[in-house]
Specification:
509 residues; alpha/beta; six-stranded antiparallel sheet; 18 strands; globular; binds nicotinamide-adenine-dinucleotide
Length: 509
């Protein structure tokens, strides 16, 4: 029954092996298995934009040739937009009243040095939207802007959204997409044009009852606002379409609690784990990898209950403080300073710099990976000195890492439940949009906490091979007759809920 996996291993074949193992365990209906093992649709397309003129730092070896070049009177503030990769976008309007000297395309900017002028030109970018499954409801999933994306990655992330929405019992399916780009090399205006163009091409594929994008790595409420504007532009009933994207700013139909929802959900799972183990979170030592939306929110919430965040690693650097980092100060350092273009923890004065290699080996109780996939390899898992890995990121642990964590008795709260708080509050946002309502933060968090904890408890029951009916939930339909690990338990819960749709509704021909 099980399909031979393709000889070339990819992130997707690995994900499908996990799927097939869980499908075997529940004796999944063979046709449902075929429906789920490939996405419904894989859209690959291109978006083009006009780039602005740029100033690119001159190569060191060319500097001598221009040592007598006089400085031009360009005021950096209004004419030059600094990019995180060291280039500047040059706004021509600011040159109109400036005293300029350009020789062989090279210009000297006061206090900044020598730059080569690179004329703006059109550029194309590869874009994706994978719609994995909609048996339970409209496709739902984030939009990622990153240099290292691929069809296989988006297929994997889209399938994980299908599992996640089922685990949280919200009436959505799974999707994911994005653009292959290093967003730190482009200006805000260029990213806006790119986003509008992306949505322009997606407009017939998405909609509040068809496919609902949300933020993921390097996208945010501002980008969601651009997508909303492009989608609803010229529509007569445009307010009825506000739910086409979630993760919006609360002032334009976003939900209270959405910004921190993924980190909050990670926290609720950790709380349940700690309760079961009789472990006190106050004073617990925590490592966080990734200090963007998910990592910073999880760190802030844990810090507020008295846990000590002893080290944070991001793409640029690692900062550590054995007594616990001042998390609000770190958030202000990373997200509150305009000049911190890469939004990195690098240089934070309240901690010392350590290497990424040393980060993994820091003794702690809890590790929250909240960056990208496949970070916890077998080698990393061997070095960890923690009791729990709570997966804020999608797919942070590879198969070998998972095996090592299991063998070493390190508990894992798998991504498909741990980070499902984001999509759950996205559903609340969508509901508020449909009903033209606005819920308080307390309402949102109360619902989120119940939903996370009930579904976490069902996963624990499946893992322990317990069946019970309580006032809040019924885990009797889900156990598989033996104990399984939490990752498998979560997959079992997802697959049984999805399969029910096919078995009860049947297949349209
Ligand atoms: P983000 O763009 O806000 O932040 C990403 C963080 O990861 C940054 O701090 C970045 O420096 C760091 N990072 C990137 N590459 C790294 C590397 N190689 N090593 C160490 N750090 C690295 O993204 P986010 O929205 O916080 O998403 C983080 C993870 O959580 C992703 O896996 C995403 O798919 C997952 N996730 C996000 C949401 C959400 O609501 N935003 C929901 C569910 C899952």
């Amino acid at each position: 029954m099980r399909k031979e996996s393709s000889p070339k291993r990819t992130v997707y074949t690995d994900a499908m092996e996990r799927f097939h193992r869980a499908a075997d365990l529940i004796g999944m209906h063979p046709r449902v298995r075929l429906e789920l093992e490939e996405p419904d649709f894989e859209h690959i397309f291109y978006v083009t934009i006009d780039l602005r003129d740029r100033l690119v730092p001159l190569d060191k070896e060319d500097e001598a040739k221009f040592k007598d070049l006089p400085a031009s009177g360009v005021k950096a503030g209004e004419a030059l937009e600094p990019l995180a990769n060291g280039n500047f976008v040059l706004h021509r309007r600011a040159l109109l009243s400036a005293d300029i000297t350009i020789r062989d395309g090279v210009i000297r900017i006061p206090n900044k040095g020598l730059f080569r002028f690179v004329k703006g030109e059109p550029r194309k970018f590869k874009a994706y939207r994978v719609q994995h499954n909609m048996a339970r409801g409209p496709y739902k999933g984030g939009v990622r802007y990153h240099r290292e994306v691929s069809l296989d990655l988006f297929k994997t992330l889209a399938a994980e959204m299908t599992w996640k929405t089922a685990i949280m019992e919200i009436p959505f399916g799974g999707a994911k997409g994005g653009i292959r780009i290093d967003p730190f090399a482009y200006s805000r205006e260029e990213i806006e044009h790119l986003t509008l163009r992306y949505m322009y091409k997606l407009q017939n594929l998405v909609g509040p009852f068809r496919d609902i994008p949300a933020p993921d790595v390097n996208t945010n409420p501002e980008i969601m606002a651009m997508m909303l504007r492009q989608y609803t532009d010229m529509q007569h009933d445009r307010h009825a379409a506000r739910g086409v994207v979630t993760g919006k700013d609360v002032r334009i139909g976003g939900s209270e609690g959405r910004l921190k929802a993924t980190g909050q959900g990670v926290f609720y799972c950790i709380e349940e784990w700690a309760k079961e183990k009789g472990f006190a979170l106050s004073g617990a030592r925590v490592l966080v990898q990734g200090f963007g939306n998910v990592g910073s929110a999880a760190a802030e919430i844990l810090h507020a209950v008295g846990a000590k965040v002893v080290a944070v690693n991001d793409v640029q650097a690692t900062v550590a403080n054995d007594a616990g980092l001042d998390v609000p100060a770190l958030i202000a350092w990373v997200h509150g300073r305009k000049e911190n273009l890469r939004r990195t923890v690098e240089g934070f004065p309240g901690g010392k710099a350590v290497s990424k290699k040393d980060f993994w080996a820091i003794p702690a109780d809890i590790l929250i990976p909240a960056a990208l996939g496949n970070e916890i390899t077998g080698n990393v898992a061997e070095q960890l000195k923690v009791k729990l890995v709570a997966e804020g990121a999608n797919g942070p642990t590879d198969d070998e890492g998972d095996r090592v964590l299991g063998a070493r008795g390190i508990d894992v709260i798998p991504d498909i439940i741990a980070n499902a708080g984001g999509v759950t509050v996205s559903y609340y946002e969508w509901l508020q949009n449909q009903r033209l309502e606005r819920w308080s933060e307390q309402d949102v968090l109360g619902r989120l906490e119940r939903a996370m904890k009930v579904n976490y408890a069902i996963c624990r029951d499946i893992a322990e091979d317990r069946t019970r009916r309580t006032a809040l939930y019924d885990s009797r339909p889900y156990a598989v007759g033996r104990k399984v690990n939490m990752r498998t338990a979560a997959m079992v819960l997802a697959l049984k809920r999805i399969e029910a749709h096919y078995l009860l509704e049947g297949f349209s021909q």
